[in-house]
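User: Sequence for Exostosin GT47 domain-containing protein below. Tokens please.
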Amino acid sequence: MRRLLFITGIFITALVVFQYSTLPHWRTGFEFAIGGGVGSTVVVMSNATIMDNSKSPDSYISHEESDEVAGSDLEEESSSQNIGVKNLDKAHRNSREIFSHHKSSNLNENSISMMSVRYEKDLQTGNNDNVNAASTVEESTNPIAISRKVEDAGKDIVSSADFASLPLLPAKFPAQGVPDEDADLRSISDFQTDSSNISNFRSPTKGEVKRNANKLQVVSATLDDKSTMARALKRLNVKPMLLSDMISMLRDSAGSLNSLRPRQSSVRDRELLYAKLEIQKAPIMADIAGLRGYVFRNISQFKRSYELMEKMLKVYVYREGEKPIFHQPNMRGIYSSEGWFMKLIEGNKKFVVRDPRKAHLFYLPFSSRMLRNTLENNNSQSHRDLEGYLKNYVNLISGKYRFWNRTRGADHFLVACHDWAPKITGQPMGNCIRALCNANVARGFKIGKDTTLPVTYVRSVEDPVRDIGGKPPLERSILAFFAGGMHGYLRPILRHYWENKEADMKILGPMPRDIDGKRAYREYMKSSKYCICARGYEVHTPRIVEAIFYECIPVIISDNYVPPFFEVLNWEAFSLFVKESDLPNLRDILLSIPEEEYLRMQMGVRMVQKHFIWHKKPTKYDLFHMVLHSVWHNRIFQLKAR
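Assistant: Structure tokens for Exostosin GT47 domain-containing protein:
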């Protein structure tokens, strides 16, 4: 018997060794099982082994917060030394060497395919914990550490070298915080670029558009199963909202929200109606000291509205709520906009009043980022938990004060930058004016009521404007620049078409996070005519504000995204919107813009720059005042005279 057991053991050992060395799916599954950590299990489906992390702790980090490598600049630098454009290619080569090393790790084509299968199952079953785990990105540029972190979390985010090694690109990159299974399959529709602000630009024919859409469909189909592809093709037929459609919605929204009428008129409402009439009959002006008319929708009305805001507006800040979720601003990182606004409004003596009866607007002083992080530490990780927390807060203030009930929250506002903010505020605070970074008009963002909060990195709290600016427009040798992680479905397609294709198109993957990498990133922006602002998992990206900082024309490729201060700024005067379906035509679109138009747009970028800067002590027309003005503006134009 002992001899029989010994022979059986040898046979089983040999079989396992044979399977591990010859079958790629078994080998990858074994590696995933090792890297999965405590609580991980291995599941075999369709001859592909995938790791189930549903029992593992949620390792959530925002997609953009963990991704925006060289542009994030979260650490203080000891030197402000710049490197020239000649050294940029060297920095890029160094970064490619890092990812080339990474390419030799265990993340091969089979593991990418299996991760795609795994996340398809997670989306179908509503397993948001596994979907959220995809958002964590390793901070270090060490390729071994990156590979281990990717395996531990079970992500389908891979390095530039991994994508470069594939014939085509993987299709699925799950969207953050959206429960429906089609959330990550954003529409890549077949319609032409909105180029009303481009002279002599020939719109593509229907045949060209169809061929471009077919090209993108081929890319999106790679390494995906039939059911996912069927849904992807269905979504491809859904056209996103055009910028012109958004403008029409903005015009139609003024005074049309009848459901938000207060149950009884108040003195403050009558004051706002007076302001509305004053704005509408503002005397016509072309340019104003410090402002250029063509970058505004109506500079006369903006100036009058801003003057009345400074003269009249009073805000009450609720004192209820405990730290760290309430009254604790975080002023660094990807979500710093909500923290800066909270800090500045709570310390403001001009607009803030102690008596709520004198207030036109009521501020709900919570941080969506701290809400997510705090409840995560308490093992509350779902949207429903966060919604419930905010609902309890609304019940608290509505029970203590009469102001919420009078307007059903229509004169209350919140400022939230977390990706989940639209979802978790939709029910308990749906009537409020929401200043949101994730401004997706196809996902509940209401033009005319909600307003877009810019995503801003603050490199130095002490000196937010440090290193701002760039080269003169005619000295910018690079046509277009992009660098960053491969979040979402769009960025891999961008790289597939344009990385290393044209000398004047610097379309890169992630750059090193060290000081040299960050300097190289900024120098690329300062030396480029156009900066590509491609969406990640969600529609927003900090690259838009970064481009404005470095006086590079933003090229926004993010269908259904409502840009910041859309109520007053004429974005077509200083930026370019390119539809996702037009990625194959990107270079032709940029080259078709006449130099005169380019110079005009570049000047427009410089003109709006002041509106996107935080100051420790707010100044006229800066970012703090522009956010507050958008809330003031939207509240005024919601009201109708009885």
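The longest strand covers residues 528-534.
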